[in-house]
Write a structure and sequence with these properties.
The relative contact order is 0.23. β1, α2 and β2 form a beta-alpha-beta unit. The protein is 18% helix and 17% strand. It has one domain. The model has no long low-confidence stretch (mean pLDDT 86).
Length: 100
């Protein structure tokens, strides 16, 4: 996400916020078998996305990047970290159906 997009989002509203990464505080630990530099694992998530959630207050936020499923609540927002799409793991939660 570029700075100009981030700043525009801070001044907008949305029911659903879709991002590649997940907000900080999501409880992600990193997918098994993937070795990332320690600095990329700091706090497991992205602070600017958490700020967007706190300011925009969408009903839902969905992200991925970490290849593991998590469901969190930040204020009024239900935030999902969606799992990796893998045809060999039919129970992977790489998609959520939401009623809005």
């Amino acid at each position: 996400m570029t700075v100009d997009v981030y700043e525009r989002l801070l001044g907008s509203t949305a029911e659903v916020l879709l991002t590649h990464d997940t907000p900080i505080g999501s409880g992600v630990s990193g997918a098994m078998g993937i070795q990332l530099p320690k600095e990329e694992m700091t706090s497991g998530g992205c602070q600017p996305i958490r700020t967007l959630i706190d300011v925009m207050r969408p009903r839902y936020q969905c992200g991925g990047h970490w290849h593991e499923y998590r469901k969190n609540v930040f204020g009024d927002t239900i935030a999902f970290v969606l799992d990796k799409v893998d045809p060999n793991q039919p129970d992977a939660r790489y998609m959520e159906v939401l009623e809005i």
